[in-house]
Amino acid sequence: MSAGMGINSRKRSLVDGNRALNLFTDRHELTRVFAAYLHDEPAEKILSFSGDGGNGKSLLLKFLRTKCCKRFGADAWQKLKTKTAAEIADYIESADNDQCDLVPAILQDFGLQPNGDDQPQDPFYGLLMLRRSLSRAATELGYRLRFPLYDFACVWYLKQKNRLTREKLAELFPSEEMDLLIEIVNAVSDTSWGTIGKAVFGIFNKHLGENLLLHWQKRGLKKEDIEEIRGMDAETELMNELPRYLAQDLSAAMSQEKAPPRIVLFFDTHEAFWGGQRQQTGILYFQRDEWLRYFLAELDLKAGIVAVIAGRETPRWAQADNFQIPQKYIDIQLVNHLSSADADVYLQRAEIGDQALRQSAIAYSSVTANQVHPLLLGLSADVILQAQEHLTPEDFPKQEATLNKAKYLMNLLLKYTDREFGYAVHALSACRSFNFEIYRLLAEELHFSTTKPAFDILTEFSFVWDVEKLGENWYRIHDLLRRLNYENSNEITQQAHVVLEKHYRQQGQVAEAIYHANRLDWRRGVDEWEEVFEQALELSRYAQCRSLLEVRSELVINSDFQIGRVSQSEGDYFAQLAKYQEAQTEYLEAVAAYNRELSITPDDTATLNNKGLALESLGNLQTQLAQHTQAIQSYTSAIAAYDQALNLAPNYTQTINNKGLVLKNLGDLQTKLAQHPQAIQSYTSVIAAYDQALNLAPDYINALNNKGVALQSLGNLQTKLAQHPQAIQSYTSAIAAYDQALNLAPDYINALNNKGVALQSLGNLQTKLTQHTQAIQSYTSAITTYDQALNLAPDDTYALNNKGNALQSLGNLQTKLAQHPQAIQSYTSAIATYDQALNLAPDDTYALNNKGSVLKNLGDLQIKLTQHSEAIESYTSAIAAYDQALNLAPNYTYALNNKGFALQSLGNLQTKLAQHSEAIESYTSAIAAYDQALNLAPNYTYALNNKGNALAKLGDLQTKLAQHTQAIQSYTSAIAAYDQALNLAPRYINALNNKGLALQGWGKLLLQLSQKPEAVNHLQAALAVFNSSLAIVSGDESVRNLRDELQEFLDNLT
């Protein structure tokens, strides 16, 4: 007949007993610390291991007791100390007994349930347990520890309580002490009162031996101690002194010649003394473990006694009234979580071979990044092993068995809280952080204790963490408890989220409110986060952006599509603050998230569209960093994503619109790289794309607006190529497109802004063509258009910035026309407009950069008016504005370039004023600013050109100061900078012209040095450069004049 199966189908868990010990992982540093206590000079400290429930403290003590209570020779230890903590731990664990001396060690677990005379927390029976363990541990290793005074005190206590029998003695004491104890019993029973002390000392002498008794007497044992014990009341006095007698006997035993060099006392689960009665305070609180505290305080740790205590909290013995142990005598060591790598080692030791399953278990058991909860990991491993091959990584977190393990862990963490405290913990789990005010709010709304004492008790639990970055008295519930409460939809936690969302909205703390909204409905919270973040970024409200980013890591986002959206917004924030590396990381994360979504739903047009947007933003960033090849690749990939969406939905006008935008940006890059035919092709394709969208939706105002932007960019390129009639036509068509959009939507802010930009660009061209009246009209119309936008949206910083730019351009023209009072008025109005934007958005780096530019231009005008002190002040203010922008965005390459430009202008003025040393310093600082920009963007052609200009000006000054060697070096470096720019953009007119001027300056210096042949070579090289420039822009009169003047100089020279 086959045996029947019991109803208990539970398999042994990996977290039980020796199975857990065999899988022990990490804790190398704690092992090293413990080993030092065994080998170095005895420390007068108690080693305290503290940490949350389930962190593996008990397993650590068991590991140290069974694997690491080993002492090596002095030379071996000194050599071992030079190794890493991991190497030390591995060596100790694997060392054979013949390589070391074993150290006696005992373990007393206060969390064990009482069982007869084994009552680990009891002041009497707990000490007796400890005494028996000490004797047994010593005897097993060939030592014998004697406790004469303590043993007599126990016998006398039992006699006074009428419980002194031979049977009781046999239960309480080791068998090897029975002869001595029986004689003591006989002595106290049969001997007259006055001679008991002498009789007991005689028994000690007989059983301990004369030498050992003499040693004890030297340590302070005397007949009067016997009399003192006999004179005490058993319950009110003797019971309280038993810890001292045991401690003194152990200290004396460890100081004798044949004692072990070390003995280790491990005490586990210290928090069990209080159980669920943590609300006790003062004397009642500290009475719970008073006997243990007294025992430890009386130990002579220098005798080689190593005391180790483990608990959820660090002992508070320094606060006790009786038997206080100051904090300096406690060596606090935190038992934290496992790293992900160590967690993986643990699972491999548990024979879980599937890497994906291991990663799923690690992710589920993680409290935060790279912090894995040991017990939850072990429980997760149980689930995987019991499910065998039927479990997938995706299904693991959803298994009922997994959820049951999580509930078990939650109950373990809250083991010592009563019902009301447990209720409070579930409510406070909704908080990212809390103080007493938040606690009281929740307590009032959810009906648990609102008192400060209750709050103080709660915050002493190990699962309540300090939040130091918020200051004193801010706390946070253990992240694992918070997560498990959320995943199990704890009703109390959900109610708390409702209360807190309402509270934070009333307080105007939008980010915190969004966090709680997300925990109630993840999609609602993510959508609001996106909306508020975009608004804050548009208005340069970076403080609000930072508060939203702070909660972002704790948002629940159950969709790769939504992860993509959020990552893209983060990228936009970092890009705006010139934190380029962080921006690139976020854009790549967004693309990766969209790709994951597309692997599940490959035909989702919204995901394809957003992927295109992320790639476009990445391309814009790479363009700014002069990573031109990568930028072209990103733009090309964006276009491919849009084409894929359009193959699925040909009439999807939003995607057609977005494709037009990326083509326009590609055209802008090609223009920058002097790839003019390709740029014209890109702009033509853009305009065709918008026309396609408008054929499908004639009133699609976004397409009309963006068509205007593309026409405007085409006009900019045509201006650059001196195709002036075509450029005027493009600008005119752009303005017509904006007007068409504004006829449909008169309050369309974007179209008003862009129309103003187009009018300003047209004004710039008209200025170039000396159509000054028309240019002034264009600038005036641009300013009027921006005012229209600002009437609709007075706080629109983009419109304010653009209005400032138009006023600045108008001021530049008025300067050119010698309308100096009007120019000063325009510049002053521009500065006021930028300040208006900065009042709304103090961290608007774009406005700060623009303000720097207008201050620099004002300085240029003041030089013309010989207002030199005012000019210096303007340049200084410009540099300060750039520095302010760079404090916010240290990698803002445009601000670095412009700062260099302002420093260069300041150097020019200082040269004019014969402030030569100051001028050299300004030029040098300008070059340093350009180098800083070029370190970030090595292919930044404008910065290369400007660096060349600063070097050339420095060369001119050095020539004037007869610093000929330095001047030649400056000219050489200038030409190298121009060549670098021209290698990147061979048709870059400004760089060509400036290179010609530098060669001309160098040639004239060589003439001064009577090096005529070399001088002629340099001057002819300059002439060739001017001719190359004219071959690209034949209609540029300024270059023609330079060329003709140089030709005449050469003719006269020869």
From TrEMBL:
Presence of keyword Repeat: yes
Domain of life of the native organism: Bacteria
UniProt lineage: Bacteria, Bacillati, Cyanobacteriota, Cyanophyceae, Nostocales
Keywords: Repeat, TPR repeat
Organism of provenance: Trichormus variabilis (strain ATCC 29413 / PCC 7937)
Stated name of the protein: TPR repeat protein
SMART domains registered for this protein in UniProt: TPR
